[in-house]
Amino acid sequence: FFLLGIKEYFLGTKNQYVATVAIDLGTVSSGFAYTLHTNQSQDSIFVNSDWVNEFGHRTSKTPTCLLLKPDLSFYAFGYKALEWNAYFQSTHETQDMLFFEVFKRDLHSDKIVDFDCTLKAANGKSIRAITVFAQCIKFFKDEAVACVRREVGEDEIDDEKIYWVFTVPQSWTGRSKQFMREAAYEAGIGSRGNLGQLMIVSEAEAALEFCVKTDLSTPVLIADIGGGGLEMTLFEQHNEGKVVKTDKVTRPANTAVHEEMFLELLERTFGEQKVQDYQKLYPSDLHQIFQNFEAKKRTFRFKETKIQLPGSFVSFVNDFLSPSMKHYSKGEVRIVDDQYLCLCAECMKTLLKSVAEDAITEMKAFLGKPQLSEGVRIFLVGGHAESLHLQEEFKREFSGRHDVTTYRDASLAIVKGTMMVAKAMNSNRESGIIGACYGVDCSRNFVRGLHPPEKKFFADGKAKCRDLFHCIVKKNDTIRRGEKISVRYRPLYANETEIKYTFYASQRSDVDFIFVTDQDVKEIGSIVIHSPDTRNGPERDIIVSIYFGGTDLIASAWDVTSGKRAQTTLEVSPPF
Question: Which residue windows are coiled coil (predicted)?
């Protein structure tokens, strides 16, 4: 191997892009925000609010629902997907349409989200998860491009003129982040050869930027309470200035409990079979009832709650109304004016308390560390953090020792913070000092007396030394964000068609002669490059690179002979 004599820069300047778009593909709802790179608009963040539900109301997010045709081509997303799915169900026109709803929730139990993951559609058919994500991303890409075109008045603008940013859960691994990158590539955004057009930001880091920016004089806890559950990330700044993150993901506080308990209430009140039959005949109307419940849940203040019902619901369950009310005390649950389901304050509190109690229990355990005894700043973000009931419960429990901050538009904190991260990255392209050594494992000719005997092996009859750490970038090197450092390698074996490169990090400054098996060397990822053309035997060039992005390190390999490429996101968090 040898170090290539060039350094490549993949981060474009603002002048290359007319806009930056941040896409927040959430568990329950999704949306996007953008900023225009003009003198008048470069400091403004616009949240797209053109999503229109079936009642004509505009919202800043749309349901994370996808409808695909049987051949896996796109049909509809969001409100439109709900409406068309309801139509197909009611008319029985086709049972082959593939409907996905809150599908990210199915991935939360997986530690690693990668190319082998599948998602099950409503009809029971399993589809590759990357196909589902790619179709969702393509939908938002097309919507965002159309939006930017309208704003700047140029029809020629395409996705290549836009800088794209995506969010992923803080708990997702490097492989999971690479999954999102590959889904974006499949959707037509960026490519393995154009790394600088796409950035992946963790939801916690985006929320941190929105809430406090760079002030970490006091530890900050980001509590993201969304459709997938509770995800807590603690940010602390040590004396040397390094920011340390501690993550905690809890799924017991799954916010789907709200929906499950509300459905149980409907079934208990109006009859399980009645509600199930209604769902089959009027799926869109039942979804609207849940949407109305969701809206009321966020504004609940220990008073009677009125949830609007579609006319179809009351007429359908009318013959069951009288006997159903015997399950409740007078005034607990009632129907008013044949259009409102009224729940008393205690009834509503019962529906909501389990999620709040579980989240508070988890946070109390998380904050029980001695070093946090002096208090932290807690920021509640995510869709369910807009619940006034949940906000009040958190303040009641934690305000004595900690500072609890809530937001009216907590569901938009992540997408807005993502835009702020992108802006900060684009405005700061100065070189930085690398805090660790990064490299790969390699083999060299075995030298007796220099290399340990236990590391000796033979490749095509030649004695080699395995497990050597080859440093691509040294600690304290100066690297510019957007820079890619490349090294040229060659296969060990003449007929080798699959070559694996494993990447490592070390805090040691002297790495001229160390092994990847040493205790202070940590594995951070690997890639396998396919090299099908073996006519040149071992005389084949494989270019291995590390790209220093703003929020992640991306490793890649390129087989020069065949043109095959491989890529992965390394398990390293900024600062690098």
Answer: none
Distance CA 204, CA 414 (A): 8
Residues 6+ apart with CB under 8 A from 15: 37
What is the tally of helices (H) and strands (E) in the chain?
A: 12, 33
Contacts 24+ apart (CB under 8 A), 191-196: 192/556, 192/565, 192/567, 193/565, 194/10, 195/10, 195/484, 195/547, 195/549, 195/554, 196/9, 196/10, 196/11, 196/12, 196/482, 196/549
Pair type for strands 542-548 and 74-77: unpaired
Is the pLDDT higher at 401 or at 30?
A: 30
- Tokens coding 423: 């802006």
Query: By the 8 A CB rule, do 554 and 196 touch?
Result: no
Q: What is the pTM of this model?
A: 0.86
Q: Please give the torsion angle defined by the CA atoms of residues 516, 522, 524 and 526, in that order, rounded to the nearest 10 degrees.
A: 20
Dist CA 25 CA 63 (whole Å): 10
What DSSP character marks residue 370? G
With 50 as the cut, is the pLDDT of residue 253 above it?
no
Task: Please state at what angle helix 174-186 crosses helix 129-152, rounded to 10 degrees.
Answer: 60
Angle at Cα 440 formed by Cα 439 and Cα 441, nearest 5°? 140
Distance CA 334, CA 344 (A): 9
Give residue 430's pLDDT band: very low, low, confident or very high (50, 70, 90). Answer: low
CB 335 within 8 A of CB 341: yes
R_g (Cα) of the chain, nearest Å: 27
Half-sphere exposure of 137 (CA within 13 A, CB side): 27
DSSP 448: B
CA distance 21 to 34: 4
The CA-based angle 416-420-426, given to 5 degrees, is 145
Q: Which two tokens stand for residue 161?
A: 């003129």
Span 9-23, average pLDDT: 71
pLDDT tens, residue by residue, 536-571: 999 999 999 999 887 889 999 999 999 999 999 998
What DSSP designation does 60 have?
S
d(CA 54, CA 66): 16
DSSP for 88-148?
A: HHHHTS-S--EEEESGGGGGTT-S---TT-EEE-TTS-EEEHHHHHHHHHHHHHHHHHHHH
- Residues with Cβ within 8 Å of 488's Cβ and at least 6 positions away in sequence, in order, are 1, 2, 3, 4, 541, 542, 543, 544
